[in-house]
Write a structure and sequence with these properties.
Distance between the termini: 22 Å
Number of strands: 0
Structural class: mainly alpha
Number of helices: 3
Order of helices and strands: HHH
Oligomer: single chain
Length: about 100
């Protein structure tokens, strides 16, 4: 079920700026942010995939074991944890940004 919510923006300009100009600028900014979020999500996803291949478990399984304290303190685990958290963060940001229309 898709929920549609509206967010109102207030603008204040010393010169006349049309609503269409504001919409175009915001639309372009949103597209750039979507592209950036997508690239960052892909970067962290690729890092996770490399750890998965190297260490023979999925990132989700790694997170379960890591949070349960079942893994050691090897630096590779800290790097993988950071990559997985980065992936989740940028995945969520991309989801949010992709759902916004100017």
């Amino acid at each position: 079920m898709t929920m549609i919510k509206e967010v109102a923006l207030k603008t204040q300009f010393e010169t006349s700026v049309t609503q269409e100009e504001v919409r175009e600028v915001l639309d372009g900014a949103l597209r750039r942010e979507v592209d950036l979020a997508s690239a960052r999500r892909d970067h962290f996803e690729n890092k996770c995939l490399a750890f998965e291949q190297q260490l023979g478990m999925t990132s989700d399984e790694f997170m379960k074991q890591s949070e349960a304290g079942d893994l050691g303190d090897d630096v590779i685990y800290f790097d993988w944890y950071a990559a997985k958290r980065g992936f989740e963060l940028w995945k969520r940001r991309l989801e949010i940004l992709s759902g916004v229309k100017a």
